[in-house]
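Researcher: Re-running this chain for the archive, since the previous output was lost when a drive failed. Same request as before.
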Amino acid sequence: MVYMEVAMKTSDFEYDLPAELIAQEPAPVRDECRLLVMDRATGAVEDRIFRDIVDYVSPGDLLIVNETRVLPARLLGSKRGTGGAAEVFLLREIQGRSFAESPDDAEGLAGLSANQQAYWEVLVKPGKRLKPGTGAMVDFTDDSGEVVLSAEVIDWAREGTRGERIARLTTSCPSLDEALHAVGHTPLPPYIKNYAGDEELYQTVYSRRESSAAAPTAGLHFTQELIGKLRAMGVGWETVELEVGLDTFRIVDEDDPTTHQMHTEFYTVPQSTVDAIERTKAAGGRVIAVGTTSVRSLESAWDPQLERVTAREHETTQLYLLPGSEFHVIDALITNFHVPRSTLLMLVSAFSTRENVMAAYEHAVRERYRFFSFGDAMLIR
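Model: Regenerated structure tokens:
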């Protein structure tokens, strides 16, 4: 959804980024990454360290984070019958939709419990050999070489997708969750090459339910110690949940960004977070979103009739924020540096101005900040 269209081109959100500034691994200590602080009104910037965030918040302010956790969504296996290498990438579980089953399928599934089977929207490789209607099956083995999980490609996801399919997952383990943790890998963005470090460093320290295909990376910079220090100062801490999809990495292909079709994601804003926002606003504090996913959750939960945020439980959003859009909830934003031509860069520009943000990015390039998911952070206040 676009609140207000303004004259702009997608090329307005291009910038030159040397490849060596794309961070390939996280900072050795989460809160020792760099922090670029920008005044959203003037564009003035300061160079700091992330743990200095304590100097830019006050008692009575409220930090809101996306507590979603990344699924072990990357499954590397082999095609049944040929043994050829195959990959299945889990995007989202499909619930409340029925699929036709052959008599042989029904017989094979009859002995499985509800925890041992599910339907997922997926991406596959090689796409040409894993088409719906061909009986394509991919098996995944654990460390002992035993097949513990299988995926059958049974249908196309929906019209207008970029190759997404429906796969039926089945396992011999007591649950799919157990199977996924036995064979799955934490997915990393395509611009991170050959990272072999601790996959837990691509999770926030406060992450909970596994539901995302990508991390809400603005939160990667927080440590438990820093969170404790902020709370001891009297800064509030509340959560939302937005299930981050792979579309978050896709650039805008259209020349006119207002014609771009925004992807759909599920989000939750608990009543406790709504209550904390109302208390904070009433007392004159600021609501500070940690990450663009938190922004989209909060602004999606804004009710224009009631003129307030309302609690939401696993609802969908296609909210598209770009210059000309209105922000009703947040007063400041902690974020990372985003990919050129991305909806995320447009959202950040909408919160200030395109000119301020692009000038700040030019500064960050000159000062050799580290960019993207494993990179440095930015505070727009």
